[in-house]
Amino acid sequence: MRIAVIGAGNMGRALAGSLVRAGHEVSIAFGRDEAKIAAAAQETAAQLAAPDVAVAAAEIVLLTVPPEAIDAALAATGSLAGLIVVSVSSGLTLDPTGGQVGLPTHRTASVAEEVAAKAEGARVVQSFTLAFAELIAAGGDGQAVLPVAGDDAVAVAKVSKLVKDIGFIPLPCGGLRSARALESLATAFAQFGVVANVAPMAGMALTH
Question: CATH number of the domain at 2-207, out of 3.40.50.720, 1.10.101.10, 2.60.120.280, 2.30.30.140?
Fold first, then answer.
């Protein structure tokens, strides 16, 4: 499939590299640092492209930017109407003291629902949120679960195939509203892996 990865951070690079290895045609775009985006393209063997160009050629768009960058990313891509858009961010807030990892208390909707409201006409799916970027970059072994949530059955099926292609077990979890629970679950997984120093696979193993 033709895939546009919007965002060249840790998760964007991890997904781009894994999807290229799985045989997909991947473009990577968007970021404040042009040199960083170019380096990400070279590192992952993805095509470097402007956001609107990457999206115009894509069947699936992976939105990997943090919540505060979503508006700028959507402005750069232009219309996503009719496209499958995967919301990857959980909106986690990291406490640098190491005391707690958690969602902002003011949030009443999931990041995925906010993306759906802003990207008019897009077929939004939430996935890849429950894994650390390092695990995505390494590729799965066919044992760990990655939930997939969305209101469009065809979009969920196509994203589930991407999950399987990079070595994970897709777990359909209902409509997009389920993203609220999944993003909260990501909070617990990050707590296990970052603060409590439990192995990063613990959360996905519990889900399985």
Answer: 3.40.50.720
